[in-house]
């Protein structure tokens, strides 16, 4: 009994400290992955969290483990958006709503963009979440096509390239106009219509020459 008492007293704070460190790691990882995507290293996470590199590596032996821990739930969240879109009475509007909602998440989070368009990391939980997402997206596309509102030659896998395009546009314009990608996404969406109609209003005007010059000056720095 005499020996058990101090052992219990010392292990409880250690467990609490370990949980607090884990929370700091995850919060820091979210920030760094949002900014840098798969370029993020565990050293970057440790520095942002204010922890020793060894502390991070003990919890996450490599970046694969960290990506799996962070992004499986994010992909499941996108799956929930797709399920909600299937509940819309208007098949086209459901399809458009899903694309806009997913695109906004991807434009704001470079890590999520990388998970959506790359299989370099996330071979377990992320892969399983991706497998759950695919059939829901397929049904969303097929439903919009059956309504005649989505062009018949659009394929579900085209979404991956669309999301890559959005990620690229968002990264290019973010330093000078964070929402400018929405203009180009709206232009792309009009090209997906299966029926002719008036063009949709664009959410932002074209960039001024000076703003475009700023974007060009920021690129690749």
Set out the fold topology.
Elements lengths: L3 H33 L5 H8 L3 H7 L3 H24 L4 H18 L1 H8 L7 H22 L11 H16 L7 H11 L17 H10 L3
Please give a structural write-up.
By secondary structure, this protein is mainly alpha-helical. The chain is built from ten helices and no strands. Helix 6 runs antiparallel to helix 8. The radius of gyration is 22 Å and the shape is flat. The relative contact order is 0.09. The model is unreliable at 1-11 (pLDDT under 50).
Compact description:
It is built from ten helices and no strands. It has 221 residues and is an all-alpha fold.
Low-confidence stretches: 1-11
Strand residue content: under 5%
Question: Which class do the helix and strand fractions yield?
Answer: mainly alpha
Number of strands: 0
Q: What's the SSE pattern?
A: HHHHHHHHHH
Radius of gyration: 22 Å
Instruction: Figure out the total of helices.
Output: 10
User: What's the helical proportion of residues?
Assistant: over 70%
Which sheet architecture does the biggest sheet show?
Answer: none
Average predicted confidence as pLDDT:
90
Terminal CA distance reads 64 Å
Tertiary shape: flat
């Amino acid at each position: 009994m005499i020996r058990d008492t101090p052992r219990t007293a010392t292990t409880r704070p250690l467990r609490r400290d370990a949980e607090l460190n884990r929370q700091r790691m995850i919060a820091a990882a979210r920030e760094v992955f949002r900014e840098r995507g798969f370029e993020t290293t565990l050293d970057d996470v440790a520095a942002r969290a204010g922890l020793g590199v060894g502390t991070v590596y003990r919890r996450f032996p490599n970046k694969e483990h960290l990506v799996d821990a962070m992004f499986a739930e994010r992909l499941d969240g996108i799956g929930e958006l797709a399920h909600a879109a299937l509940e819309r009475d208007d098949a086209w509007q459901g399809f458009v709503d899903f694309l806009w909602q997913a695109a906004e998440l991807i434009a704001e989070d470079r890590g999520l963009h990388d998970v959506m368009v790359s299989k370099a990391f996330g071979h377990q939980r992320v892969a399983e979440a991706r497998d759950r997402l695919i059939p829901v997206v397929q049904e969303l596309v097929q439903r919009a096509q059956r309504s005649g509102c989505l062009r018949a030659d659009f394929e579900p896998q085209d979404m991956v390239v669309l999301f890559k395009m959005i990620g690229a546009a968002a990264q290019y314009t973010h330093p000078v106009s964070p929402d400018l990608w929405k203009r180009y996404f709206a232009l792309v969406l009009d090209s997906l219509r299966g029926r002719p109609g008036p063009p949709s209003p664009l959410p932002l005007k074209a960039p001024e020459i000076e703003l475009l010059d700023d974007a060009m000056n920021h690129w690749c720095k």
